[in-house]
Design a protein that fits this description.
Blueprint (H helix, E strand, L loop, with lengths): L2 H18 L11 E4 L4 E6 L8 E4 L5 E4 L2 E2 L6 E6 L3 E6 L8 E7 L5 E10 L6 E3 L5 E2 L3 E11 L4 E6 L2 E3 L2 E7 L2 E11 L8 E7 L9 E5 L2 E11 L10 E10 L6 E4 L10 E4 L2 E4 L8 E9 L2 E9 L28 H4 L6 H36 L18 H10 L13
Parallel strand pairs: 1-9, 11-19
Antiparallel strand pairs: 2-7, 3-4, 3-8, 4-5, 6-7, 8-9, 10-12, 12-16, 13-14, 13-17, 15-16, 17-18, 19-20, 20-23, 21-24, 22-23, 24-25
């Protein structure tokens, strides 16, 4: 090495030592995360740069931009800003291939570099649900499977029965840089699952808004179940009665069949069948019996029975204007067919009539007694007077009136012997 070359090498060494002591001569970058299909902005900054060029390179060490000069022919890569202190570029429509370590170089002596890692998130595809057979039969065992592909990192799958979350079994398989995720849900379906919506939702960091999801609605076929509704609690003669045969099954068991005591309905003029309803326009005692409703589909049949007992119309006395002294509590079983059995529903009215008859007899007896007391009193009052003894009757033995007067006057001395009696 000649003197000139040695001098130049010495100067560059001193210059490099000085640059090394200045922290502002190191480029500054940041790692980034971008969603597949998005745009990545990559910035490299430096302080106290003396017009030294900055350069961006991809993971394959291919130069993307040198200063403001584009080096790689890729229409997705654009220059955003270039100056002595900053170099910013953008990469649009990012794919998983773009993921890796990017390098920013500052061409000093020696060259200073900084590295930034770009992470690309793989967006999971919309999930699909398999394994659903339509329609399913009550009691069947089925397995629903939900699958999504293309997620990075691996997505999470969640199951919901209507709005309530249920637990499934998850399985993850790698496929290159992305993952395929499956989740299975085992069910034993019954009639309560008919019309229920099962939803599989995908949760992933790349899904910033509404998660991807798929929904399937179960259709379950099952045999019918039947029961009878009636419009009257205590049916009585002459009343209108409606019986409704309520049957639930899938497929719908329509129409239904009505019978009485194991045979056909006897009086179709008063017993009208419309769809599932049996209507009695005017009840009478001949309607007593057991009525059956039967419904079925291809999975089976079901029936229900209603025992009809028509009661007499109850008769009651007219209401009294005065409240009773000792009110009689009502008999709660008087009109209850489940308690009275064959009891006459008119028994309560007859009991009230007996009490009214007894009360009338008592009133007549009291009135007659009062009349007898009044007559006897008047008779005794008319016989009240003054009575004398035989000693005061001087005229009893006189032959004529004058002698009687004399005898009476002669007896004045004995007047004190007269006695009075009051009866």
């Amino acid at each position: 090495m000649n003197l000139k070359s040695h001098l130049i090498f010495t100067l560059y060494t001193i210059y490099g030592i000085l640059l090394k002591g200045s922290s502002g001569q190191y480029p500054l970058v940041q790692n980034m995360t971008v969603t597949e299909g998005g745009t990545a902005n990559m910035t490299c900054r430096v302080e106290y740069n003396d017009n030294t060029s900055l350069q961006w390179s991809n993971p394959a060490q291919q130069t993307l931009f040198f200063g403001d000069k584009k080096a790689l022919r890729d229409n997705r890569i654009e220059l955003v800003h270039a100056s002595w202190s900053e170099l910013t570029i953008s990469i649009s429509d990012v794919t998983l291939i773009d993921e890796g370590m990017y390098t920013c170089s500052l061409f000093t002596m020696p060259v200073r570099t900084a590295k930034a890692y770009m992470t690309v998130l793989g967006v999971p595809e919309k999930p699909e649900i398999d394994g659903l057979t339509k329609p399913a039969l009550e009691g069947d065992h089925i397995t629903l499977t939900c699958m999504t592909q293309g997620s990075k990192p691996a997505a999470d799958l969640r199951w919901f029965r209507n709005e309530k979350e249920v637990k499934g079994a998850k399985e993850v398989n790698a496929s290159g840089k992305t993952f395929t995720v499956r989740s299975s849900l085992q069910l034993r379906v019954d009639r309560n699952d008919d019309g229920v919506a099962y939803t599989c939702k995908v949760d992933h960091v790349a899904l910033t808004q509404t998660p991807q999801q798929a929904t399937e609605v179960l259709e379950v076929h099952y045999a019918p179940r039947v029961h009878i509704l009636h419009s009257l609690a205590v049916p009585q003669e002459g009343q209108y009665l409606k019986l409704e045969c309520v049957s639930k099954g899938n497929p719908s068991p329509d129409p239904v069949m009505w019978t009485k005591d194991g045979g056909e309905l006897p009086d179709l003029d008063r017993m009208i069948v419309e769809g599932r309803e049996l209507t009695f326009t005017s009840l009478n005692k001949t309607d007593n019996g057991t009525y059956r409703c039967e419904a079925g589909n291809h999975l089976g049949s079901s029936n229900a029975e209603y025992v009809l007992f028509v009661y007499d119309i109850p008769t009651t006395p007219p209401p009294s204007t005065a409240p009773p002294l000792h009110p009689i509590p009502p008999d709660p079983t008087a009109l209850d067919p489940t308690v009275t059995g064959n009891r006459d529903p008119n028994a309560l009215g007859q009991h009230g009539t007996d009490h009214a008859l007894i009360g009338g007899v008592v009133a007549v007896v009291v009135f007659v007694t009062l009349c007898l007391i009044i007559v006897l009193g008047r008779y005794l009052a008319r016989h009240k007077g003054t009575y004398l003894t035989n000693e005061a009757k001087g005229a009893d033995d006189a032959p004529d009136a004058d002698t009687a007067i004399i005898n009476a006057e002669g007896n004045h001395a004995h007047a004190e012997e007269k006695k009075e009696y009051f009866i």
